[in-house]
Specification:
9-stranded mixed beta sheet; about 500 residues; binds adenosine-5'-diphosphate; binds alpha-D-glucopyranose; Rossmann fold
């Protein structure tokens, strides 16, 4: 057991990890934070569900323990291997009945939630708690269990449910809007003490809430930006859980995400047409031409290319882009949009492409390589979200000299500055209206006419340290505090 950050044994528990399974930024974080902590001297492992893409990719897997039948699965085994191409140890839960199937990690191909998600993600939390209690792998017992989002949140309740463990739990909210709610009558499937089945436990308006388990029972709660940490304590952003967040006030911390510079760096990016950096910007021009060619945008050197790379959901505020688009196209903007999600938004973007050939190009789909090409080739990356816990694409924009244009909310507000010109890194607007977005794009167009001014903003963004080194250290410091809280005021209690 260590109380120095550098010696800590840390178990990250999550449902997705780049590049194996990814539905959003969570996967990027789970791929990059653990190696950064290992670099800082911690002993870090991952725990993941045995989804086909994970089980098939993990290297050198060996059996740790045969768990037998549980959570409705006939055969559950815990394996230990390494993440592909790295030394990072990863535990994988092999439970074919629950995890070995097509479709996505949370939903079937038809977009409906898997009907057994309660069992699928309760098992994930339960195994984490048993690793912490030293009966799953006595050879390696974590000091800290770090659970990510609702999928892993139940680990915090199982640990609080009197499991004999010294391990502290830390819960990170990546997005409070996805809560993991299940019918009350499925309570018995979870195997938690009945005292947890109350409003002071994990009951939430007559349902079971995995998210609430993390918020209430983790020794420390974090979220992915300081602004979002403050926002989720308000009714406007709290998704009904703001009261629970406020009740943990002193224990809720916002730590900004970093980016994986091995994956996102224009100087070494194999996916883009030409490499570039602050001192050699010519490559960015080549990326611009390649993007225009690839997406069918007119080869117009005057046009300002605004990119969107996003899930197409209400969260992301892309209806504002759609509404402002005709005016902005007339003003000389080209749009390069890549996304997938709600059918109505997909259709609306396709129609915009048809209405503005050569000026609006849309790729409906999920494609990592193309995402790099968009980020590198555009002038501006727009992230007009209604709420945004952190947001990674604006950080990728900063790194690639593609000026972020964002709404002043959550992590976007914390990472992009349009204040005094000597600090400007992008464009920021307040109201969630097409007019406010439009005005911000007009400011971008005006700055672009001032070549030197634009270049200064671009170089400032590219010079920022966006690596995981700082956030990784911040989490390690927090783990020491979490262990202290666990020893002095353990959270078995309800209320
Ligand atoms: P969120 O997790 O809410 O979707 P983030 O900005 O944190 O938002 O992370 C989104 C991640 O998903 C980024 O790595 C982004 O590049 C990626 N992404 C989103 N949509 C697509 C897409 N259609 N194709 C490729 N990558 C995408
Ligand atoms: C969530 C949030 C996003 C954040 C990501 C990684 O998906 O929506 O803002 O960047 O998690 O923390």
């Amino acid at each position: 057991m260590s109380d120095r950050p550098s010696g800590l044994k840390v178990l990250h528990v999550a449902a997705e990890v780049y590049p194996l399974v990814k539905t959003g930024g969570l996967a990027d974080v789970v791929a990059a934070l653990p190696p950064a902590q290992a670099q800082a001297g911690a002993e870090v492992r991952l725990l993941l569900p045995g989804l086909p893409a994970i089980l098939d990719a993990v290297q050198g897997a060996r059996l740790v323990v045969d768990i037998g039948a549980c959570f409705g699965a006939l055969r559950v085994r815990l394996l230990l291997g390494r993440m592909p191409g790295s030394q990072l140890p990863v535990y994988v839960i092999d439970a074919p009945h629950l995890y070995r199937r097509g479709g996505g990690p949370y939903q079937a191909g038809d977009g409906l939630e898997w009907p057994d998600n309660l069992q699928r993600f309760a098992l994930l939390g339960w195994v984490a708690a048993h690793l912490a209690a030293d009966d799953a792998d006595p050879a390696w017992v974590p000091d800290v269990v770090h659970a990510h989002d609702w999928h892993a949140a139940l680990a915090c309740a199982y640990i609080a449910d009197h499991l004999p463990t010294q391990a502290a739990s830390v819960f990170t909210v990546h997005n409070l809007a996805f809560q993991g709610l299940f019918p009350h009558h499925d309570w018995a499937l979870m195997g938690l003490s009945s005292r947890f089945m109350s409003p002071s436990g994990i009951e939430f308006h007559g349902q079971l809430s995995f998210m609430k388990a993390g918020l209430k029972f983790a020794d420390k709660v974090t979220t992915v930006s300081p602004s979002y940490a403050a926002e989720i304590a308000t009714q406007e952003f709290g998704c009904g859980l703001d009261g629970v967040v406020r009740s943990r006030a002193g224990d809720v911390v916002g730590i900004l995400n970093g980016i994986d510079e091995a994956v996102w760096s224009p100087a070494a990016d194999a996916a883009i047409a030409a490499r570039y950096d602050r001192d050699r910007l010519a490559g960015k021009r080549a990326c611009r031409h390649a993007l225009q060619g690839q997406m069918g945008l007119a080869r117009d050197d005057e046009a300002m290319i605004v990119a969107v790379v996003s899930r197409l959901t209400a969260q992301k505020g892309l209806d504002l882009v759609l509404a402002a688009l005709p005016t902005l196209v007339r003003a000389g903007v080209q749009f390069a949009v890549q996304g997938t999600g709600e059918p109505a938004l997909e259709t609306a973007f396709r129609m915009a492409e048809q209405a503005h050939p050569g000026r609006v190009a849309v790729y409906i789909g999920y494609d990592e390589t193309r995402a790099h090409q968009l980020v590198a080739g555009a002038d501006v990356i727009a992230v007009p979200s209604r709420f945004e816990p952190c947001g990674l694409t604006q950080l990728y924009g900063l790194r690639y000299g593609t000026l972020p244009l964002v709404r002043r909310v959550g992590g976007l507000a914390d990472t992009v500055c349009e204040g005094p010109s000597e600090r400007q890194t992008g464009f920021v607007f307040d109201a969630a209206t097409p007019a406010a977005l439009e005005a911000a794009v007009m400011r971008a167009l005006a700055l672009r006419r001032d070549g030197e001014g634009w270049r200064a903003v671009m170089l400032r963004g590219m010079a920022q340290d966006l690596s995981w080194a700082g956030p990784a250290r911040a989490y390690l410091g927090l783990y020491v505090e979490a262990r202290w809280s666990r020893q002095t005021a353990p959270r078995h209690g309800l209320g």
